[in-house]
Amino acid sequence: MLWPLPGARVRFVASEPGLKRDPGAFALLAEHGLDEIPRPDVVVVPGGTGVGAAVEDEALLDWLREAHRHSRWTTSVCTGSLILGSAGLLPGLRATTHWLALDQLAELGAEPTSERVVEQGKIITAAGVSAGIDMALLLAERLVGPEIAQAVQLRIEYDPEPPFDAGSPEKASAEVVERVRRPTRREPSEAGR
Questions:
Q1: Which residue is catalytic, options 34, 60, 64, 78?
Q2: Phi and psi at residue 76, to the nearest 5°
Q3: Number of Cβ within a 10 Å radius of residue 75
Q4: Is the distance from CB of 115 to CB of 125 less than 8 angstroms?
Q5: Model confidence over 41-98: pLDDT tens digits?
Q6: Quick one: which H or E segment has residue 30?
Q7: What is the pLDDT of residue 193?
Q8: With 29 labelled, which of 16, 82, 174, 175 sits at a CA distance of 20 to 30 A?
Q9: Residue 58 half-sphere exposure toward CB, CA atoms < 13 A
């Protein structure tokens, strides 16, 4: 969502360049290795099922620490904040993540909060996936001003009216919360949804 900003160049990086697949979901092409982009202006760390390996990837964590020293903004979406925490960037800071991982944030020294977006100095963390849109719009406003950020919001027609009021564990029924808490393998009929 940052690509439409004036002067923006979005680049996907990873410890090793190549196709990165989220099991059962989608794939992204990391065109650059970490060493090719040593001082990004903005860092956006995604979350998802690959976080378990990423929090143990010392090359990635070292790169994040160094990139953060020079970045204008260091951000995360969903469980990407666990990667920031593993890099030692969140001690004593309020931060958010997907609600299922809030306890893990505390173990990494952060002060977990269930807010959708948390700005602490030049670090911005977003809760689940949809909160990433909120974070990206806030970041756009910080980078290029409110008018362009609002234009981006209009361009993507981000005017949420969810069909259900179940977007947080406080609002969802106990049955729905438990269904999400249970680790399950996707059934073939659910994979296409």
A1: 78
A2: -145, 155
A3: 26
A4: no
A5: 999 999 987 788 889 999 999 999 999 999 999 999 999 999 999 999 999 999 999 9
A6: strand 27-30
A7: 37
A8: 82
A9: 0
> What does DSSP assign to residue 23?
T
- H-type alpha helices, 57-173: 58-70, 80-86, 102-107, 129-144, 146-155
Residue with tokens 């406080």, as numbered in its chain:
170
Residues sharing a CB contact under 8 Å with residue 81, sequence separation 6 or more, in sequence order: 45, 47, 90, 95, 96, 97, 101, 105, 110, 125
DSSP-based three-state secondary structure for 18 = strand
The verdict on whether 188 is a catalytic residue reads: no
CB 84 within 8 A of CB 135: no
> What domains are there in the chain, each with its CATH number?
41-183 (3.40.50.880)
Map tokens 């991982």 to a residue. Answer: 101
- What six digits make up the tokens of 99? 């609600």
Look-up: residue for tokens 């073939």? 188
